[in-house]
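User: Could you go from structure to sequence for me? I need the amino acid at each position, not a summary. Structure tokens:
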């Protein structure tokens, strides 16, 4: 863990003088996963600091235009919903901002292969729930703020140092304060600085694709269905949003860099026209679009999620292609496992950063994450293949799969985290 560019890390810093005199757990990153971990430790006798410089964005009370919704949304599985419910978070998200979807339609742009999932046929209440990210973060923050054992620190971490003789990791803040937790958790996203400072080795590769996201208004109802068309350039997903009418969707349009830049440069009317064509006008015309943003797609996976005194969760440990919407759900699984191991160590009278406990967390999560990442990589490669024989087999396989009710139910239950 290098701090050479900082000079002497102790000079000019003083140990923490926040409400608590020390923290057993310091979490860097107050997004959905980091704040969920803090909430998982709420109202225990474990002292927690959640470091996040940005205030959670106040959710909009309006839901009538494309500008009233967060551009980033998540498909929350039944398992993630159960976790958020146990944390007291799910009821804090207004029902009017939750969009349970009853169906899912996936089809191949280069053929006639199509797969349809239906909650009633699969004997589940819904296939998942689309929720704006800011709604989840806001609700999580309410739980964290009300816990006596959690402080939310609106600063940034400038660097960390090697563990001291007591097994504590010095964490240096922008204010000049220094914290020395037993456990430092990196929940600071795909470009995690905690991962960098902790010198975690990782495997990664660039898809050379971008994911364009936006909120759109359609001519027809989204039918409480998630839609995904696999194009040679990448998948296009339309995710149903809750609201005062049923014609709002969030899009995730994965495509190559050239097409993405071209789409971003279009005016709103021309973009809606291009989107309608790409979606084959399944739901009529695209009437309106809100702000458009794009982010690069890159697969990353830390070879280890833990080192002495440090653990990674969520995108800091692993990122995945968004085609199945599983990213944040894997992060919530990380949260459930790590919080259990922290509480277990504490109950046994061990330091919460005890390496054996952290390694238990890694064993519980790494194989599952790798399996999901491999599956998504396989799907991505299968649907981007252009050879005629592969396209033929792909379409035939989709048609056969669509007729296999028992197999479809098993796949959906796995995706929902119910098996």
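Assistant: Here is the amino acid at each position, in order:
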């Amino acid at each position: 863990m290098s701090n050479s560019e900082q000079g002497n890390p102790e000079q000019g810093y003083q140990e923490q003088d926040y409400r608590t005199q020390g923290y057993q757990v310091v979490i860097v990153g107050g997004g959905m996963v980091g704040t969920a971990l803090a909430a998982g430790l709420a109202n225990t006798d474990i002292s927690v600091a959640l470091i996040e410089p940005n205030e959670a964005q106040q959710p909009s009370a309006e839901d009538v235009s494309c500008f009233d919704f967060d551009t980033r949304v998540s498909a929350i599985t039944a398992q993630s919903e159960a976790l958020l419910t146990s944390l007291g978070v799910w009821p804090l998200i207004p029902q009017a901002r939750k969009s349970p979807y009853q169906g899912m339609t996936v089809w191949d742009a280069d053929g006639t292969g199509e797969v349809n999932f239906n909650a009633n046929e699969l004997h589940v209440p819904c296939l998942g729930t689309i929720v704006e990210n800011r709604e989840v973060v806001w609700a999580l923050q309410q739980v964290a703020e009300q816990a006596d054992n959690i402080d939310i620190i609106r600063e940034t971490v400038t660097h960390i140092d090697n563990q001291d003789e007591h097994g504590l990791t010095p964490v240096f803040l922008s204010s000049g304060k220094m914290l020395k937790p037993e456990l430092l958790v990196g929940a600071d996203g795909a470009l995690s600085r905690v991962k960098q400072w902790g010198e975690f080795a990782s495997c990664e590769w660039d898809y050379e694709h971008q994911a364009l996201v936006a909120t759109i208004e359609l001519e027809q109802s989204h039918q409480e269905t998630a839609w995904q068309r696999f194009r040679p350039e990448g998948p296009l997903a339309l995710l149903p949003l809750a609201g005062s009418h049923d014609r709002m969707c969030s899009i995730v349009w994965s495509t190559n860099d050239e097409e993405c830049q071209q789409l971003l440069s279009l005016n709103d009317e021309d973009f809606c026209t291009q989107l309608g064509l790409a979606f084959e006008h399944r739901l009529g015309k695209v009437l309106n679009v809100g702000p458009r943003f794009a982010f690069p797609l890159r697969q990353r996976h830390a070879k280890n999620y833990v080192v002495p005194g440090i653990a990674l969760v969520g995108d800091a440990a692993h990122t995945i292609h968004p085609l199945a919407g599983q990213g944040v759900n894997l992060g919530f699984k990380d949260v459930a496992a790590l919080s259990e191991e922290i509480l277990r160590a504490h109950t046994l009278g061990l330091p919460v950063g005890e390496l054996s406990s952290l390694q238990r967390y890694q064993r519980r999560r790494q194989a599952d994450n790798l399996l999901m990442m491999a599956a998504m990589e396989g799907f991505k490669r299968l649907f981007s293949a252009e050879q005629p024989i592969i396209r033929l087999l792909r379409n035939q396989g989709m048609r056969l799969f669509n007729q296999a009710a028992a197999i479809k139910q098993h796949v959906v239950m796995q995706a929902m985290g119910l098996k």
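One structural detail worth keeping in mind: The longest strand covers residues 202-218.
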